[in-house]
Automatic annotation (TrEMBL):
Pyridoxal 5'-phosphate (PLP)-binding protein, which is involved in PLP homeostasis. InterPro entries: Ala_racemase_N, PLP-binding_barrel, PyrdxlP_homeostasis. Belongs to the pyridoxal phosphate-binding protein YggS/PROSC family. Residues 6-222 form the Alanine racemase N-terminal domain. The modification N6-(pyridoxal phosphate)lysine is found at residue 35. Keywords: Pyridoxal phosphate. The keyword Magnesium does not apply. This is Pyridoxal phosphate homeostasis protein. CDD domains: PLPDE_III_YBL036c_like (cd00635). Its cofactor is pyridoxal 5'-phosphate. Gene3D superfamilies: Alanine racemase. Signal peptide: none annotated.
Amino acid sequence: MTVKQNLARIQQEIDAACQRVGREKNSVKIIAVTKYVSDERAKEALEAGISHIGENRAEEGARKWHVLNGNGTWHFIGTLQSRKVKEMIEIFDYIHSLDRLSLAKEIQKRASKIVKCFIQVNVSGEDSKHGLQPSQLIEFVTALSQFSFIEVVGLMTMAPNEEDPEATRPNFRKLKDLQKEVQALKLPYAPCEELSMGMSNDFHIAIEEGATFVRIGTSLVGKEM
Ligand SMILES: *Cc1c(COP(=O)(O)O)cnc(C)c1O
């Protein structure tokens, strides 16, 4: 399947999910996760009209960015090591994995402009997942006030990979509730208007629960180099 064909199908599913819950269909943006695929396939995604690209590894992401001449809006969705911060914030427009103060400190030290960040929250509580515990979130957001180059644009979560995507719904709902808590703080540096949640198998559920960015790899661009 071409990316264009996959995109048409996915866009239909997005529109249907929006309709089910009375949302505007353009309130959901698709991030094409290109970590599994070739440069050509990533280029095909941009040519199909997708403007958001997601990569989860620093070296590979930087390499693809250069090959594609920095076209599009780039999202870093993987675990970010402090020593990679300088390079990554120059290339990527959004960081989806802010989850510790040491990382915030490093971003502050290296940044020369505002860095748009999602705070990653481990809502499911699985040991294998990165991110803050929900109970740590408010204290963490408040502590970010000392870092003038960090803007908290939203929250991000990785849901457990369930056989039945419906089983992930409570995780998405929880992230939405946490977003409301952050928004209630009315912190100027944390508008927190975005929710980055939902992947190939569960994006329709995430959208019903309020996702504004869905991160789709396998079912959009595929899974082989
Ligand atoms: C790989 C990845 C995705 C995309 O997963 P698919 O199931 O292939 O759609 C989304 N988010 C993150 C953080 C990822 O690492």
